[in-house]
Amino acid sequence: MRVWDYQHRRYDELGRIHFEVEWITVKPSAKDKTEIDPDIDTITHVEYFDTEETAVKRAREIYAAAIGPGGEGLCWGIVTVQKEVLEWFVQEDNVAHWEPEGEFIEISDLL
After folding, report:
1. ∠25-85-14 over CA atoms, to 5°?
2. Cα(first)–Cα(last) distance of the chain, in Å?
3. Which residues contact 91 (CB under 8 A, 6 or more apart)?
4. How far is CA 1 from the centre of its chain?
5. What is the dihedral of CA 85, 97, 42, 68, to 10 degrees?
6. CA dihedral in degrees (26, 29, 32, 37; nearest 10)?
7. pTM of the model
8. Which of 7, 25, 26, 78 would you label with 42, given CA atoms 20 to 30 Å apart?
């Protein structure tokens, strides 16, 4: 069933699954601070993938690039992969939203 995905402002299939890759970096203006405020000194980055395998691969690439020479670094030292399902938000209006499902995968080293 096609529903309105209000988070991404598009129509999509109810029950569809995707995988969210998320990582947080420190803003360049806050790099020299001894303490950062997570609300104003960080940038949250998000990408979406159709398969867990592709999402984990991309998360590892992001992690390696962020901690490597010239990388921007990771605020908390991790990249996460979260499975999400498009579920009802307001059924009578045919509106859906993405709900996390299960535990997230934490990419925090290159093992």
Report:
1. 135
2. 41
3. none
4. 25
5. 30
6. -50
7. 0.89
8. 7
3-class SS of residue 14? coil
Tens digits of per-residue pLDDT, 73-100? 898 899 999 999 999 998 889 999 999 9
Paired tokens of 43: 């940038």
Distance CA 108, CA 60 (A): 8
The counts of H helices and E strands in the chain are 1, 7
CB distance 18 to 48 below 8 Å: yes
Rounded Cα distance, 59 and 25, in Å: 14
Give the whole-angstrom CA distance, residue 105 versus residue 107: 7
